[in-house]
């Protein structure tokens, strides 16, 4: 969806008749080419491009923010009392670190699985380093006027640097699609035993085309920038919150009881129960707030 919105933004002056729906179909046609890739290892090279884009995004956004201050002093709300906002923030945080469903596939495709733990630690630390500087600088400069995505902030819109970033992000999003969707696609293919059929490529194309078709239909159904952020929060609250916070804690306690003769320590149970409680609360508030935002966007 964001790739389609960015494509429309970049091409609206060169091709005024180009609609967001057409941009969604264009992006879908490009990402459809991943149907010929079988494993994560085959798309690993994409990660290097994405890393370069993220570093460029970090530098350009911070530099643009500092060079394009607002015309009036910013107002920053330091303590937000709205519980629904807490839910949205929690959902967004979960989405940023929501790589957990892909981790088993990544480990199985690694040449040196022994480096898995260090890879995960470096990846999460790197994600934090990408988010914190942009968050701190942009909120310090623009306060409550910061938008999601950051390039939609009024003072940054239209600048040449932001257009370059938008183009790079669009490429990053298109390149990232196979990394994110390949795991559920291959899982469904294994369930349907696609590789055991007479023409596995045809079965793979059919399964993956269904995934692309679904995401394209969602994009066309929503298709406005105002609905992007609440959609992201809704998806995160309903999925990432569980895969990042709730299910890992539940599975940890279950496995701990299975493989250890010693009984669970009380502090282990309490700590995991606290995480599950906070995550469930954040997911509930995040879902309600995202749905309310989507309803309001249709009412405008």
TrEMBL record:
InterPro entries: AA_transpt_TM (IPR013057)
Any one Pfam family match given in the protein's UniProt record, by short name: Aa_trans
Domain Amino acid transporter transmembrane: start-end pairs: 25-279
Any one cellular-component term (Gene Ontology): vacuolar membrane
Name of the protein in its database record: Amino acid transporter transmembrane domain-containing protein
Cell compartment(s), UniProt: Membrane
Keywords: Membrane, Transmembrane, Transmembrane helix
Sequence intervals crossing the membrane: 15-36, 48-66, 86-106, 118-142, 162-184, 205-222, 234-253, 269-288
The keyword Membrane appears for this protein: yes
One MF term in the entry's GO annotations: L-amino acid transmembrane transporter activity
Membrane topology per record: Multi-pass membrane protein
């Amino acid at each position: 969806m964001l790739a389609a919105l960015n494509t429309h933004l970049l091409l609206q002056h060169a091709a005024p008749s180009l609609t967001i729906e057409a941009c969604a179909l264009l992006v879908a046609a490009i990402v459809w080419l991943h149907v010929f890739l079988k494993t994560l290892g085959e798309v690993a090279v994409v990660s290097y491009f994405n890393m370069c884009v993220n570093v460029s995004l970090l530098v350009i956004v911070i530099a643009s923010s500092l060079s394009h201050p607002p015309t009036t002093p910013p107002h920053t709300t330091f303590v937000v009392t709205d519980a629904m906002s807490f839910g949205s923030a929690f959902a967004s945080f979960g989405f940023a670190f929501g790589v957990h469903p892909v981790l088993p596939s990544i480990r199985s495709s690694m040449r040196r699985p022994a480096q898995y733990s260090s890879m995960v630690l470096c990846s999460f630390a790197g994600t934090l380093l990408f988010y914190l500087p942009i968050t701190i600088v942009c909120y310090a400069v623009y306060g409550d006027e910061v938008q999601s995505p950051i390039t939609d902030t009024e003072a940054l819109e239209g600048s040449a640097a932001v257009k370059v970033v938008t183009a790079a992000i669009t490429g990053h999003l298109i390149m990232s699609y196979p990394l994110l969707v390949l795991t559920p696609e291959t899982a469904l293919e294994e369930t349907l035993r696609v590789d055991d059929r007479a023409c596995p490529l045809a079965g793979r194309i059919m399964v993956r085309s269904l995934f692309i078709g679904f995401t394209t239909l969602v994009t066309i159904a929503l298709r406005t920038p105002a609905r992007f952020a609440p959609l992201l929060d809704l998806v995160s609250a309903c999925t990432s919150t569980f895969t990042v916070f709730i299910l890992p804690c539940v599975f940890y306690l279950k496995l701990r009881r299975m493989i250890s003769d010693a009984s669970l320590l009380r502090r282990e149970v309490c700590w995991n129960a606290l995480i599950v409680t906070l995550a469930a609360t954040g997911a509930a508030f995040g879902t309600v707030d995202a749905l309310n935002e989507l309803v309001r966007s249709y009412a405008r």
